[in-house]
Amino acid sequence: MSLDARHVSCIVPVFNGERYVAQALRSVLDQTAGAPEIIVVDDGSTDATADVVRRFDGRVRYFRQPNSGPTRARNFGLSVASGRFLAFLDADDLWCPDKLGRQLEVFARDPRLDYCGTAVENFADTPAEATLSGRAATVAGWSVISLLARRKAFDRVGPFRPEFAHAADTDWFLRATELGLAGSLIPEALVRRRLRADSRSQEHVRRSQREYLELVKAHLDRKRARGSERPKP
Amino acid sequence: MDEATYFEPAPNVAADIVEGEAILIRLEDGIYFSMNEVGSGVWRLLEAGVALEAMADLVSERCSVAKDVVDRDLRVFVDRLVELRLVLPSGARPVDTLPTFASVPYATPGIDIYEDMADLLALDPPAPGRGLKSLDPE
Asked: In this complex, which of A43, A196, A210 lies closest to B137 when CB atoms are compared?
């Protein structure tokens, strides 16, 4: 069965994203494979995000929730999405034009595949922001902004867990892996992630790190319980 | 390997004690590590800025094991941590509060290495403290 963008819902959480959200939405609408269903979940923005998104009326479904974070916004998007495939983009990032097409080809070749990601290219609007980020230009790793998953994968793994303020995406991929779902990572960067210098507090950093460390510890404990712990010699 | 006395966690490492076990993530590549009970206790002391010699005294006393055994094991252990880019030799630092070190049966302090989450932690590692964008509510 041929697959095309009509089978896909793209969920875009946004909070005060007036500056970049139009660019993000255009990158989804301009896919060479065609435009998927686009669901924008406005996470209580107080800027002109709603006005910007309404300019896309007819091509974008707009929802608004009280401010409760991107994880709950993605989960809300999951609850209203109609596609057999689910994808995500953050409101300041961009899909490359052939992102969806390349991933749908991978699914067409492998009907057993549950989810597919791509490498991500980091970019910054200014050299200062690029320097501050300290991030590599291209990273081959799992990220929600490059994820295309069968709805059945979400039925099995469940939604993102909102109790994770920082590591909800990583937790989802980890649970998918532990359940034995089949994932494929396209090595080319088909999504562009905008790096932004910010002024996060040390407390924010500490909480984020603690959450990831607890995630790792829980994963390790589950491995031990299954008897599948295999540290590198 | 050098004979440094003081060590500190390397800047690109997230580490904490989770349910009594030292868990570390090397942010540059998403490789993570866990330490056994004695290793976890030693990690607490190292983070607090306790000198190697003082660590050995404490571990020897709390675990009722010969000081020369602990001396040797600790040196091997911290050399391994340096080799894994998890700690760096440092200057002396004031120790605000000496962490507790439980009386546990002695085992050579050890660290295990895991690579199975590297591609999960590669792109979105725990915030390294600078330059991550966020859609989080402020």
From this structure: A43
